Amino acid sequence: MDPDKQQVDSAHVESTPVTTGLEDAKLAQSRAMQNREHDIAMKIAIAKYWRSMGYCIFFCMSAVLWGYDMQVNGGLLAAPQFRAVFGYTLPDGETILPARWQAAFNMIATVGGMIGSLLCGPLSFYIGRKSNLALACVISSGAIFLQFFAFHRGVLLAGKLVNGIALGMFLVTACAYCSESSPVAIRGLTTALVNFFVVIGQLLGNCLIKAFGDRSDTFACRIPFAFQWFFPLILFSGVWFCPESPYWYVQRGRIEDAKKSLQKFQIGGNVDQWLYEIQETVRMEEESANSAGYIDCFRGTDLRRTLIIFGVWTINSFSGVNFVLSYSTYFFEIAGLPTSHSFDMGVGVTAVGVVGNICSWYVINVIGRRSLVPGMAVLTVIVFVIAILDVVPGYNHSIAWGQSALIIVWNFFYDLTLGPLGYVICGEMSSTRLRSHVVSIGFFTQNLWTLIMTITVPYMINPDEGNLRGKTGFIFGFFSIIATIWTYFYLPETKGRSFEELDHMFEQKIPARKFHTYRQRTEE
Predict the structure, then answer these.
(1) Architecture of the domain delimited by 292-524
(2) Under 8 Å CB-to-CB from 314, ≥6 apart: which residues?
(3) pLDDT exceeds 80 at position 508
(4) Which CATH class is domain 30-242?
């Protein structure tokens, strides 16, 4: 970089040619608007931008299907009629499912999610967020059809795989749309709603399996499959009434369409200034690079941004979420609860997650993204305590109850910090030019780690393998320490920053711990 440029303290001087007086005035107004948005109260921001909030909530509803699919898998495997259709009967009359097929059933949607995430990057870039959501709805509807009418294992696995592709597309699209269609003041809140609806989906999955899992006919498993049709139908019907991402329009030179889109997101206010800010962001990024593909995500300053997103989804798995939540019912059973009551407690765990997500809205908008640092510290302590209790002499039902209680507490803090913040950071950290590609890489990483944990954790915890039980917490406690240290040194604070400001700060290589205090000059 030219040494003279390094001394410039403005976001625009590096790449902006000599401006006219009118452009200078727009620049000053844009920065003044940014400064006002930094400190606006959440309640006022929601009242001011309720239309933007509503459209983002609609897109986030697609995340329900991801959480629902995750949760319904385990419940179906426990349903007698599901085992009767897809398993085989032993001489004593008991029906079981082949272990290899169970593993494939649990993992196949995750593989589909990895494929869908990578497909969504270039697709969303070319056809837009609305069309991408509509396409995912069509794919999901067809996949649900396969699952509903499946009476052979291969057909069911094919349906799960194809549906996983749609689920990956849903998450990428929702995250990208919320980050691009929300003003700075509510951007964290709208992207956090993706995780909120994931947890809602988990809760719905638990409830439907509880309601229909004991039926004596094949509808015990077919009704939970059929329920999924409800959401693609609503989303496909309503997406055409939503405005497209204004960033997507500006990137294609459709300025008037972008302005019309912004007018739908905001009642009153200065839409021209919001549009000008978007144009400036897109112009600066296009001047720094003229291509947008997966390779570009690993070049220049975009490499750092991509690695941050990769790191956030990695520490999500390092926290032990696959161990703590996936095996919560296991601990409840050890505590002496009947299997049916253990399932009820599982519903309670997801309900606590909903409460944690609601509380996270305050944390994200008031404290900021680096609230993940103390959040990771708390999760680390809890998972270590779960492990320590497992080696206490005279392990009994009371200690197992203590572990069960800690699982619920852990889940609350997970959904208060790490759970929703993963989606917020994924939506904010990428450059506008590469957002669909970088977000796709983020969710590919999430699915990859989920796949790895789905394979390895059973070998750690099961009595016929590692037999570590709760002592598995020592392994994830160690990983959580590494994750906490990484978060402290490498996670920037992006609360209240426009994408234009973030582009400048990454270009200037501001250290992560100084993002919060960094200030640009508002005058030239």
Answers:
(1) Up-down Bundle (1.20)
(2) 445, 449, 483
(3) yes
(4) mainly alpha
